[in-house]
Write a structure and sequence with these properties.
By secondary structure, this protein is of the alpha/beta class. The protein has helices spanning 12-24, 35-44, 61-70, 89-96, 112-116; strands at 4-8, 28-32, 49-53, 79-84, 101-105. The longest helix has 13 residues, at 12-24. It binds manganese (II) ion.
Length: 130
């Protein structure tokens, strides 16, 4: 089965780049343009992984991650925040909001897949979250 990745991102260029990189590796990439749309999509068809921009319209990435974690069916889906290099506090806030990890922007096409793939490894029951 093709792993499905939901990418919540308002910026077209970032989405096109990530979609290009991950589609070339065989992943199915689905887009939401804001947090509300992302939560609705995740609830309708839970993905294997969520990539989450932090600066989003309607509700920011932290609020989005927090709400995603309140839905029982979504509680164990890895959420990886895409944080700005300049915003050092983003990473701690992203983890506190329920994100599993983070990847720094700008996206590096040469290393992005390697950065994402560890989060797609299934967590066995009883294992602590990464
Ligand atoms: Mn953004």
């Amino acid at each position: 089965m093709t792993p499905k990745i939901l990418y919540i991102e308002d910026n077209d260029l970032n989405f096109y780049l990530v979609n290009f990189i991950l589609s070339a590796k065989g992943y199915e990439v689905v887009r939401a343009r804001d947090g509300r749309e992302g939560i609705d999509l995740a609830r309708t068809a839970p993905p294997h992984l969520i990539l989450l921009d932090i600066q989003l319209p309607v509700m920011d990435g932290y609020a989005t991650a927090s709400e995603l974690r309140t839905h029982p069916g979504l509680a164990s889906i890895p959420i990886v925040a895409l944080t700005s290099y300049a915003m050092a506090g983003d990473r701690e806030k992203a983890i506190a909001a329920g994100c599993t990890g983070y990847i720094e922007k700008p996206i590096n096409p040469k290393t992005f897949t390697e950065q994402v793939e560890p989060y797609l490894v299934p967590v066995t029951p009883g294992e602590t979250s990464r």
